[in-house]
Amino acid sequence: MQKIFRAISFLSCAFFALVSSVASAEIPMESDSIAVIDDLDHQLKLKAPARRVISLSPHLTENVFTIGGGDFLVGVSAFSDFPKQAQLIENVGDFQALNIEKIISLKPDLILIWADGSNYSGLSVFEELGIPIYWSQPKNLDSIAHELKNLGVLFGLSAMANREAESFLQQLNQLKHYANQPAVKTFFQVWDNPLQTINNSTLIGNIIDLCGGENIFADAIAKAPLVSIETVIAKNPTIIIGTDERDGTAEWIEDWQKWQSISAVANQHIYSFNADHLVRHTTRVMVGVQEICQALDTVRSR
């Protein structure tokens, strides 16, 4: 009987220890444990896990849902359309203008902002009110996992966030062999009129590099430079990649047919993909990575 009692006591202690460890992993209780360095090297500390959060970028909104924190979003920016639940959250403005009064009325305990996509005026009012701000500026594919982990700390959801981050990195590692394949001269079209592309300091540039592509404007000074059709012809890309319109069409492809001197056009190596899978710093970018890697591999095989 004593053995059974001791066994039950041991199991009870082990159970409560396990529960306590899980709880502490998901919801840190000490303020010192809720601290991260954001992408602008600002140290951010919270007294408790964030529970009333404003997201001012679609990719941040999506990443919050990815780590299981969607229920804690009280306001989002325009175009925060994934997942579908995000469309039901209060819209507080877009990159050109924010509804500052609405944001303040929602009483946020944390605001998430994309540094590269912010053209907002009036942000200083949040700092004056003491509302914590997390600045996001992911620069490559690896930084997506880093951001998930940071958000996990801020929301007290580290276990879920770390699982998602590690899963993403594992998928990424499985594709890195493409970088060792023969290079494919690549032109990525951001916009058709005026003609615009990207350099290699962008997420798309990083994807092209990972897939073994040679971005013909990799060294451009501007992140998204305007270029002439004559320059593209002179560089003669083997593949041209762009993105679909919102309705899923890609009428821009037809405009290239007049330039048959370009290898990509002559050999019908022009591809269009869903923009959300290429420009948003979220785990869904893996779909776009796989599509571009496969497209470049198709070109190599012909």
Under CATH, the homologous superfamily of the largest domain reads Nitrogenase molybdenum iron protein domain
Low-pLDDT runs of 5+ residues are 1-31
H-E order: HEEEHEHEHEHHEEEHEHEHHEHH
Tell me the number of helical segments per DSSP (H or I, 4 or more residues long): 12
Output the strand order for the largest sheet: 4-3-5-6
| CATH fold-level name of the largest domain | Rossmann fold
- For the termini, the CA-CA separation is 76 Å
Q: How much helix is in the residues?
A: 25-40%
Strand tally is: 12
Strand fraction? 5-15%
Helices and strands in order:
Blueprint lengths: L1 H25 L8 E3 L5 E3 L7 E3 L2 H9 L6 E4 L23 H6 L4 E5 L9 H5 L4 E4 L5 H14 L2 H16 L10 E5 L2 E2 L2 E2 L6 H8 L2 E3 L13 H7 L3 E5 L8 H4 L7 H4 L3 E4 L2 H4 L5 H17 L1
Parallel strand pairs: 3-4, 3-5, 5-6, 7-10, 7-11, 11-12
Antiparallel strand pairs: 1-2, 8-9
Helix pairs in contact: 5-6
Quick synopsis:
The chain is of the alpha/beta class and 302 residues long. 39% of the residues lie in helices and 14% in strands.
Task: Characterise this structure.
- With 302 residues, this protein is α/β, with parallel strands linked by helices.
- It folds into 2 domains: 31-172, Rossmann fold (3-Layer(aba) Sandwich); 177-301, Nitrogenase molybdenum iron protein domain (Rossmann fold), CATH 3.40.50.1980.
- It has helices at residues 2-26, 58-66, 100-105, 124-128, 142-155, 158-173, 203-210, 229-235, 252-255, 263-266, 276-279, 285-301; strands spanning 35-37, 43-45, 53-55, 73-76, 110-114, 133-136, 184-188, 191-192, 195-196, 213-215, 239-243, 270-273.
- The strands form 4 sheets. It has a 4-stranded parallel beta sheet, with helices on one face. Strands 10-7-11-12 form a 4-stranded parallel beta sheet. Strands 1-2 form a two-stranded antiparallel sheet.
